[in-house]
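Q: Hi! First time doing this. I have a protein sequence and I read that you can turn it into a structure. Is that right? Here it is:
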Amino acid sequence: MSDAKFEIKGVRDGLLIIMREDSEWQSVITDLTERIDKQASFFTGAKITVNLGSRPVPKYALGSLKAAMERRHLALAQVLTDSPTTKDAAEALDLRTAPATVTAEPDDLSQTQRYHTQPFRPEEDSTPGMLFARTLRSGRIVRSDGHVVVIGDVNPGAEIIAAGDVVVWGVLRGMVHAGAMGNTRATVCALEMAPTQLRIADRYSVTPKDKGRWRRKQPEIARIDGEFIIVEAWQRTARKE
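A: Yes, that's right. Below is the predicted 3D structure, encoded as structure tokens:
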């Protein structure tokens, strides 16, 4: 996990936060809440699972984490732990528990592949991400600390929030936020571009009332140019380094 005090992964039901067992508790909480406050758009509405390993965390300490999440309108949904002390504390706070060895991953692994080998670093050529070999239907929310690739459509009502790029090998009709942790070099690509809302880093664009002006039925790429998001023909040379 390198020198970081925690690691964040996008999983099926929201976000998984893995905390280093040798880090001072309050220091971890401080760094984590600062990260959430700085990158609020990536965390908004997410269900949080925290993996504490074998670290013994008493009720008052775990309660402080739960309260910090609630103040930021986040739900601490589950605690993964191998410590009896932490398990008792979680149950006293009405939190679901599971062994720390349980891995929270996307559903249908026969159709969905999850790759994660290291934290997201936008300057690296090889970046972890998530692949969905199916259409994302209304109500589905996907979060990734890397890239997201969808082989299928993204229907209205579906959302993708990714720290890296988003590639849709189909029609994009839902909401997409690429570069959600501030990466202004992130892009959104689709065979047909008709999102209800499209965001890259802190810029955003919405579909015009005349959707035909946006949807040209050709592969397109969206990227930041200056202060605005532009959409142009998707070609191998379209991305600006």
